[in-house]
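Q: My labmate handed me this sequence with no annotations at all. I'd like to see what the chain might look like in three dimensions before we decide whether it's worth expressing. Could you predict it?
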Amino acid sequence: MRIQAWPGDTLEKYGRWFCVPPELIADANPHVEKGGLRPGQTVAIPGYEMMDTWEALAHCLSLPVEALRRLPGAMAVINGTAPLPKRITSPVVRRAEPYDFAALEEDIEALVCRYPFVRRRTIGHSVLGLPLVELQIGRGPVRVHMNGSFHANEWITTAVVMALIDDYLRALVDDAALAGHRVLEYYHKVTLSIVPMVNPDGVNLVLNGPPEEEPHRSEAVRINGGSLDFSQWKANIRGVDLNNQFPARWEIEQARKPPKAPAPRDFPGFAPLTEPEAKAMAALAEASDFAMVVAFHTQGKEIYWGYEGLEPLEAEAAVRAMAEASGYKAVRYIDSHAGYRDWFIQTWKRRGYTVELGEGVNPLPLSQFAQIYQEALGLFLATLKMA
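A: Here is what I predict for the chain of 387 residues:
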């Protein structure tokens, strides 16, 4: 929602009027100088949307539409010349639905529109040219990164991450507790970086079938053994497993992984960081000074948190809090290399976690979404608290 400033207006006044923390209004309006508003400036107010239909206004006022039509002057208000603000009180993003790149794009646009203090940028592009979107939330000195859908058939991780962001943003605007956490404190402590979908081409392949573009369509079908069932596909569209692409003992994975050529899963590539998605994620970490990273995968209800003894001492306290909040098992070491978390710990000696959401066989069914979300919510909030 946007309003026009009058003489004497301040962001603090708008905060009182609309019951929104003024720092969120300030962050939603970087064009407004700290010295004050100028009359006529347009100001975005987060947490609101505009009502421009009889039905929406009637629902808000708990009145029948026909009764509303009889109010003096009602036509002037509802004919579109003077839409009315409505507080956002329910989720913005879709939940428990198949979640491809188009769904992600629509939900990101909806979030940024309603919560304009969310910063959006493109950090790179997939093989097929889809943007890899990073969202940033917060003004804190501690930078924490989270991501989802490194693996194509683990696309439910993106749906969960977007739902977490949605509820976090609404709680921020309401200055309300979320599962017992006053999250506005985290907004001041943490700058949260999220890449919800690292592998959009692969997710689209799993959910929608092969792309129209050649040679990628024919190659994907060939790599998949001629089958059009891509439900077990983990790799990117070129058949490279993106979470085996990082230079953390990559040569061990390259030697022992059965695939020696592009495959639906487990092929680490012919060299580390050959794929544009992996390159973009590495460049983001190198430029961002992250204190902690959390990569969401499925499945197993486990949190992997160590690598080669290079993890810092404070990593254990954080993972214990995450495990307690989610009910997941903390696992220090696994026989695996070349992953994003492995590389992050090896390079910076900082806290890195791989979270295996849910249980069962990938791709996990949407019937698990509500339970996975609740487990992930506790872990998400514990992560911000321990940052």
